Amino acid sequence: MEAKRNSWIMEADISSLQAAMEAGTLSSEHIIEAYLERIKQFDGLLRSIIEINPEAQAIAKALDAERALKGSRGPLHGIPILLKDNIETGDQMHTSAGSVALAEWNAPEDSVVAKQLRSAGAVLLGKANMTEWANYMSSKMWAGYSSRGGLTLNPYGPGELFVGGSSSGSGVAVAANLVTAAIGTETSGSIISPASQNGIVGLKPTVGLVSQSGIIPLTRSQDTAGPMARTVQDVAIVLGALNEIGTDYTKFLDESFLQQARIGIPRYYMKHLDEDRLRIVEEAIDVLKEKGATIVDPVTLPCEDVEWDWNVLRYEFKCYVNEYLAALPETVPVRTLQDVIIYNEKHAEIALKYGQDKLIWCEQTSGTLTEADYVESLQQNKEMAGKQGIDHALYEHRLDALLFLGNESGPDLAARVGYPVITVPGGYAENGVIAPGGYITKGPQGITFVGAANSEPTLFKIAFGYEQATKHRISPVLMKRLDHLNRK
Question: Could you say which of 166, 168, 221, 377 is catalytic?
Answer without folding.
Answer: 166
